[in-house]
Design brief:
The complex is a heterodimer of chains A (about 180) and B (about 240). Chain A folds into 2 domains: about 30 residues; about 100 residues, no CATH class. Helix content of chain A is about 45%, strand content about 0%. In chain A, helix 4 packs across helix 5. The longest helix of chain A is centred in the first third of the chain and has 27 residues. Chain B is of the alpha+beta class and about 240 residues long. In chain B, a hairpin with a 6-residue loop joins strand 2 and strand 3. Chain B has a 4-stranded mixed beta sheet. Chain B has a two-stranded antiparallel ribbon with strand order 2-3. In chain B, strands 4-5 form a two-stranded antiparallel sheet. Chain B has one domain: Alpha-Beta Plaits, CATH 3.30.70. Helices cover about 25% and strands about 20% of the residues of chain B. Chain B is globular and about 55 Å long. The chains are: A mainly alpha (about 180), B alpha+beta (about 240). At the A-B interface, helix 6 of A face helix 4 of B.
Chain lengths: ~180, ~240
């Protein structure tokens, strides 16, 4: 019986210590980028139609992915090269595109893959080493109406694991400068 | 693997301060107000030190631009408790902003006073908001910052070389201060490459006996080399006295 109080004390301490640990784990689980709902976009752009049905390459629209840090979104003019001959009647999403073009207003897309400001990711280098867009972005071509969803964690642990597996540099200044 | 270094020819330096301005603009360094100067908290990754030599009327102004020396045995590195400052294998003394917890030990341990602490959130007037360099992180309050030989330019050039499947060419990269210098007093390049501009300049100046480094005797092996001023009048004076 003399150890009961000690045991009880140890138990209580362990439970108290487990609370912040559980909170941290819960935070990283629920705040994981992949666990977030699909972001609303000004126009519900269907990648499915453009990639699977028409067969466009990713770099047809995201033109700078192979040459620069950013993959970049296309200007509306590029959309309109095709869409000026595609009927818009009864298609509200397309009407929004044409309206934006005619009013000379940019479309304010919501960024899906958010990487913090102190991290510099460069698309061109990753693509030149033979990685596919889908390695990080998933099968965007199969994503339909609601919008693109982030399928990979893309937090520092994820980046470093991949860098280690592929023999890339892992010191801080590769990404942080 | 290059070993980046810098040569500053004080015989060419005219003290115009173009390097200071270029660095400020390139690296998103916040603008130092008068108030900040009086508190001695001004941030300038490269600063221009001015000395007076001689007595009036034979007085001369001497200028020394002082960036981070990128010491090989950097005294600032071992004191960081969180490894926020470390040496890259290209010999650059890097500061990892998101790792820094702001103990400022490194600034205390730096003999050249080239490490700066962000005492406030950085602010720019609205007219300058769009001139920020997207390749450089804007440092938030509470972290150290310092010259890193424009590492974003080096990284960009290396990535370009990788995409084009070639090696980095000699003198392909230069820093903002070296680029802005109107008299080419600042030269940046690979110290290990015998064909680079810095190596050639050093070899020639070594022959003339002009090479020195700031606080060289501390043994930290800085990678910024200075070339002594050639003062023709001073050399002529002892002869004239006789």
């Amino acid at each position: 019986m003399r150890y009961v109080r000690v045991l009880l004390f140890v138990l209580v301490v362990l439970v108290i210590m487990a609370v912040p640990l559980a909170l941290v784990l819960a935070r990283s689980y629920f705040l994981a980028p992949t666990a977030q709902p699909v972001k609303a976009q000004p126009i519900q752009f269907p990648h499915q139609v453009h990639v699977q049905a028409i067969g466009l390459d990713c770099t047809f629209c995201h033109r700078n992915a192979t040459t620069s840090a950013q993959a970049t979104l296309p200007p509306i003019e590029l959309c309109m090269q095709c869409h000026k001959v595609i009927p818009t009647q009864g298609r509200p999403e397309l009407e929004k595109l044409v309206a934006a073009f005619e009013q000379n207003q940019p479309i304010l897309w919501n960024k899906v893959h958010q990487i913090p400001d102190h991290t510099h990711f460069v698309h061109s280098v990753h693509l030149s080493f033979g990685f596919q867009c889908s390695t990080c972005h998933g099968d965007v071509g199969a994503m339909g109406k609601p919008g693109v969803q982030q399928v990979r964690d893309l937090r520092m642990g994820d980046c470093i694991t991949c860098h280690q597996q592929n023999g890339a540099r892992t010191d801080c200044s590769v990404c942080h400068y | 693997m290059p070993r980046w270094g810098m040569v500053i020819d004080l015989d060419r330096c005219i003290g115009c301060g173009a390097c200071v301005v270029a660095c400020q603009a390139e690296n998103n360094v916040p603008i130092n107000t008068e108030d900040v100067y009086h508190q001695r908290r001004a941030i300038a990754w490269i600063r221009l030190e001015r000395y007076w030599e001689g007595e009036f009327p034979n007085i001369k102004a001497r200028y020394i631009p002082v960036p981070c020396m990128q010491c090989t045995n950097a005294p600032c590195e071992p004191v960081c408790p969180v490894y926020a400052t470390y040496h890259t294998n290209e010999g650059i003394n890097m500061q990892v902003y998101n790792r820094c917890i702001g103990t400022r030990y490194c600034a205390v341990n730096c003999h050249w006073h080239v490490r700066f602490f962000n005492f406030w959130e950085p602010k720019w007037p609205d007219s300058l908001k769009n001139q920020l360099n997207p390749d450089v992180t804007v440092r938030s309050r509470g972290v150290m910052e310092k010259c890193n030989f424009c590492v974003h330019r080096i990284v960009k050039a290396e990535q370009k070389a990788k995409v084009e499947k070639r090696e980095l060419r000699t003198d392909e990269v230069t820093t903002a201060c070296a680029q802005a210098c109107p008299t080419n007093a600042i030269v940046f390049g690979d110290l290990d490459d015998p064909n680079s501009a810095v190596s050639k300049l050093l070899a020639q100046a070594e022959h003339e006996g002009r090479v020195y480094r700031l606080l060289e005797d501390l043994g930290t092996d800085p990678k910024v080399y200075y070339l002594k001023k050639v003062d023709i009048e001073a050399a002529a004076e002892p002869a004239a006295a006789h």
